[in-house]
Amino acid sequence: MEQLIAEILLPYKGTLGKAYEPYLYHAIRVGYIAEQLSKSKFNKEKFAIVCAFHDLGIWTKNTWDYLKPSEVLASDYLVETNQNDLNDEVIAMIHHHHKLTSYKGEFEEAVELFRKADLVDFSNGLILFGLNRKWHSELKQKYPTIGFYNELGRNFWKHAKFKPWNPLPMVRY
Q1: In whole angstroms, what is the distance from residue 27 CA to residue 118 CA?
Q2: How confident is the model at residue 156 (pLDDT cuts 50, 70, 90)?
Q3: pLDDT per residue as tens digits for the range 94-105
Q4: Are 144 and 41 in contact (CB under 8 A)?
Q5: How far is CA 15 from CA 43, 60, 171, 173, in A?
Q6: What three-state secondary structure class fits 45?
């Protein structure tokens, strides 16, 4: 999975700039967390695609309102790689990954799994959904955060300064 995530993100290395490695490691950590949380058959390729694209719109469109740009990037990739059959599910996973409550609807199992995996990483392990704390610490040692949270903080404040009435446009209820 990590190799596919790295291959998908390589063309965006210039756009990501100094955020490339922190974002790459975030995407890889989320993939491994999802695999660890999974209680059924796990499609590594599908999750690698979602992990690679889920927040990418922050940097490609220079926006904190990044879900739609990230969805478009993922959808374009699926068309380019003849995986159109995954489009609706991948888009749902990206679109709802910041939902504050459990997701109910089409592709529920995959959306919930990805939402939880991203939340584990975003919370830096504060929320683990039953994962082993030692396993999570070892994952972060292998793929360190190296400024990922600082990068998110910079983007948050940059957005909040100009749109204080909507500081978290990616959050879903």
Answers
A1: 9
A2: low
A3: 999 999 999 999
A4: no
A5: 28, 6, 24, 30
A6: helix
Q: Give Cα separations from 61 to 57, 85, 111 (angstroms).
A: 5, 26, 24
Q: Closest Cα partner for 139 from 49, 25, 42?
A: 25
Distance CA 45, CA 1 (A): 7
| Main-chain phi, psi angles of 73, to 5 degrees | -60, -45
CA 23 to CA 158: how far, in whole Å?
18
HSE-CB of 83 using CA atoms within 13 angstroms:
16
Confidence of residue 32 (pLDDT cuts 50, 70, 90): very high
State the pTM of this model.
0.92
> Amino acid letter at 135?
W
Helical spans, DSSP H, in 54-132: 57-60, 67-80, 87-95, 108-122
Q: How far apart are CA 109 and CA 13, in angstroms?
A: 31
